[in-house]
Amino acid sequence: MVYVRSRKFCCCLPVRFGVFCESILGIAVGGFFAVGGWIEIHAMLKGTLGLAQGEKIALWCLAISMTIFALTSLLGLIGAIGRIRSLVGLYAGMITFVTVLDVVAGIFFIYQLFHGEGNDQINKCTAAADNNTQGLPDSSNAADVTHWACSTGFAVGRAIVVVVYVLFWLIEIYGCVIAFEYVGQLAEERDAEYRDDHEKPAPQNITIIPQPAYAFSAAPNVQGARF
């Protein structure tokens, strides 16, 4: 039996345990969004759910990607339990792909939040504040307060969204590192077993030479013989 030192994450936890927990979480999260997406698609195909063309494409992409993610997480769980390097490698590649998609989608959403829809929401908030404060005494001061509340509230909200996104990205990236670390550990274990098998001494063939058989004749019993 070949012993290979287990790689760790978070200072003390084995990477195999990390992949095990990640895959279970992936099955739960991916399965939840996949089931929800296919339910919405079923309602859309029946005509009970009206969506724009872009929303339909996004819904199909969500359902398909989350289904693949859940199935790949299941393979990762099997690979972590059975120490199967190919399945763990497939799982590591899949969560890396999903992480890249999440980062790209998050950057686009944050950009829209600061330059596109975010500014539109602030303008709508201030316009609604102007309509609500018209005809009130000291309406200019009330409008200024509501404008400040709108801009400050959206600024704080956008900052919170950015922090949450960054933390989520860091967790996802660290999860990819853990998965690839376990793939590396499995590769080390395979190489160690290969070297151990080839470094074992070859069995020596021992030739047994048969000894020649000697025939012994019984000596005559001369006791009591008379001459």
Concise synopsis of the structure shown:
The protein is 75% helix and 2% strand.
If you had to describe this structure to a student in words, what would you say it looks like?
The protein is mainly alpha-helical. The chain has one domain. Helix content is 75%, strand content 2%. The protein is built from five helices and two strands; from the N terminus they run E-E-H-H-H-H-H. It has helices at 15-46, 53-82, 85-115, 117-133, 139-199; strands at residues 8-9, 13-14. The protein has a two-stranded antiparallel sheet. Strand 1 and strand 2 form a beta hairpin. Helix 2 runs antiparallel to helix 3 (85-115). The longest helix has 61 residues, at 139-199. It is elongated and about 115 Å long. The relative contact order is 0.11. The chain crosses the membrane at residues 24-45, 57-81, 88-111, 159-180. Keywords: Membrane, Transmembrane, Transmembrane helix.
Topology:
Layout: E1 8-9, E2 13-14, H1 15-46, H2 53-82, H3 85-115, H4 117-133, H5 139-199
Antiparallel strand pairs: 1-2
Helix pairs in contact: 1-2, 1-5, 2-3, 3-5, 4-5
